[in-house]
Amino acid sequence: MNEKRNVYIIYGFLESGKSQFINFTVSQDYFKQDEPTLIIQCEEGEVEYDETELKSLNTYLETVEEYDEFNPEKLEELAKKYDADRIIIEYNGMWNAKDIEERMPLDWAIRQQITIIDGVTFETYVANMRSLFAEMIRNSEMCIMNRCHDVDKLNGYKRTIKSLNTGIETVFEDEEGEIDLPLTDEDLPYDLKADLVEIKPEDYGIFYLDVWDNPDRYAGKRFHIQTLVMKEPRLPKNFFVAGRPAMTCCADDLVFMGLICKSKEAKNLVDKNTVDMIVSIVKEYRSDYGGEGPVLYAESCVKTAPMKDPVVNMV
Question: 157 near 28, Cβ under 8 Å?
């Protein structure tokens, strides 16, 4: 037995394909191990588990349907019942994922979190249950959208998902299970072929998401852009974070969509200054990003009048 139990959490609304995904995963050679695996199912959909087949894979199924029972004592009791080294949790889509770690035993270590989405019902759930959806995506390293019918909408869907978690990996599947459905480049509201690319205030959200998703296509180009200033004490004195607050869920749920910016004017700026800049973009490693990411290098940086509405609406 490892010192910590390894936990994999699968999020998604009812009938999104969570059970189907788990059934497929536990049957794969790369997922097999000698130690027992426990599946904790928190809601039952159309697809049922074959417990006889699971046992042949040294995998066992338990159900926790009441939220109050999803607590450290109950979960540890189930794990000890099978001496399970690995736990897969099929989480209930109607339970808020925000505090999921607090409801687990201390010796459980979350190794991966994945959100499964039904492409047919995506727009309905996002419109009516956005706060629940947002917490799933924020927790996850990967999002798999299945049953994709309308390829033309996928860029918009991807933008919605990335607005909640810029680092998430998104995979699309059609009804035959073909992974990574080909996506055409979305029509951007600015001209990347221009000598100086104009980023209008209303286009900042698309710019921010696309520069993270496709940093190479922005590298070396020059941009005219207005942002707010956020001073980060950990950054050198000639750096600041340039960005805009964004509403990704509701009015009470703002995130700062910011990019690290180097400017000789940084020392003269304070939080919430509005700046008008001409910048170039370099993809480089930054410990602040935890890896490679887009960094703005300001050719000019001038304080200007505050924006009329600095909040980017991603809802």
Answer: no
Residue 177 belongs to some domain of the structure:
no
Task: Please say which residue of 121, 137, 172 terminates a domain.
Answer: 172
Sheet holding 5-11, edge to edge: 59-63, 37-41, 86-90, 5-11, 108-118, 142-146, 169-172
**Domain of 132?**
5-172
| Least confident stretch, 86-90, 103-107, 244-248 | 244-248
For residue 210, give the CATH number of its domain: 2.40.50.140
Assigned token pair, 309: 């509405």
Name the domain count of the chain. 2
Structure tokens at 289: 């990003």
Q: Do residues 87 and 107 touch, judged by C-beta distance below 8 A? A: no
What does each C-alpha distance from 311 to 138, 158, 197, 227, 315 come to in angstroms?
20, 21, 22, 11, 11
What are the helix and strand counts (H, E) for the chain? 7, 14
Same domain, residue pair 24 and 144? yes
* First-residue to last-residue Cα distance in the chain: 45
Residue 231 lies in a domain: yes
Checking if the pLDDT of 185 tops 50, the result is no
Q: CA of 77: how far to CAs of 40, 55, 62, 171, in Å? A: 12, 19, 11, 35
Q: What is the pTM of this model?
A: 0.69
Distances (CA, A) of 258 to 141, 194, 288: 20, 24, 12
